């Protein structure tokens, strides 16, 4: 009771706000308010998976301009709130642990950031998403397995082919033993054309992974 009183008192003077709508959170809410959870554009189970050549992918939400999930991902990536990624991973993992082929994964591998961007941001948002998935799905992670050894240009104004070409040689494997002979669940924040996931999966499969599937927080429309 005392802890509840102190929490409420602190919230009165230093209110924590929702990452999706910036309204003050009430007791029992964590990072994202109940209203935002209700209105987030969850991708229906029948539409969650898609094939990207060699890998099957699934995304938690549809990503639309000026939407709550766009604001949440912005907070995760650019406003020093990596814990949002962990929360989203825990929520999504509770669904994926009942779904084939994702429940069959042996290890979870996040898409890495280039060292320059990692130093600037201070953390890899996909790694925190992977941690949340790991907790819910009870699967180990291999955080340093993939390395992004070449900085890539912005993908925003590139064609689909140019995006694939831009990402083709951006990644290499640092720890082959972490994925050799295993089913890998590759993790990223947003799925656009799939160029990043394709490039990473090619490296993983070439190094000995027996299967690679992928999940992301959101899928761009």
Automatic annotation (TrEMBL):
Positions of the Phosphoribosyltransferase domain: 129-218
| Domain of life of the native organism | Bacteria
Question: InterPro entries attached here?
Answer: ComF/GntX_DNA_util-trans, PRTase-like, PRTase_dom
Q: Which PANTHER family match?
A: DNA UTILIZATION PROTEIN YHGH
Record family assignment: Belongs to the ComF/GntX family.
Q: What is this protein called?
A: Amidophosphoribosyltransferase
């Amino acid at each position: 009771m005392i802890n509840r009183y102190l929490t409420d008192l602190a919230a009165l003077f230093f209110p924590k706000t929702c990452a999706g709508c910036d309204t003050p959170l009430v007791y029992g809410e964590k990072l994202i308010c109940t209203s935002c959870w209700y209105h987030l554009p969850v991708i229906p189970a029948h539409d969650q998976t898609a094939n990207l050549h060699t890998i099957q992918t699934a995304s938690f939400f549809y990503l639309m301009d000026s939407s709550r999930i766009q604001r949440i991902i912005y907070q995760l990536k650019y406003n020093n709130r990596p814990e949002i990624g962990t929360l989203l991973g825990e929520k999504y993992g509770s669904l994926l642990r009942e779904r084939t082929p994702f429940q069959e994964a042996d290890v979870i591998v996040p898409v890495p950031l280039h060292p320059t961007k990692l130093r600037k941001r201070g953390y890899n948002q996909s790694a925190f998403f992977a941690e949340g998935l790991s907790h819910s799905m009870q699967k180990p992670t291999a955080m340093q397995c993939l390395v992004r050894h070449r900085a890539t240009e912005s993908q925003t104004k590139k064609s689909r082919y140019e995006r694939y070409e831009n990402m083709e040689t951006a990644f290499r494997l640092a720890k082959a033993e972490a994925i050799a002979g295993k089913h890998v669940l590759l993790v990223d924040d947003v799925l656009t054309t799939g160029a990043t996931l394709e490039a990473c999966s090619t490296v993983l499969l070439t190094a000995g992974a027996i299967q690679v599937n992928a999940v992301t927080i959101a899928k761009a429309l």
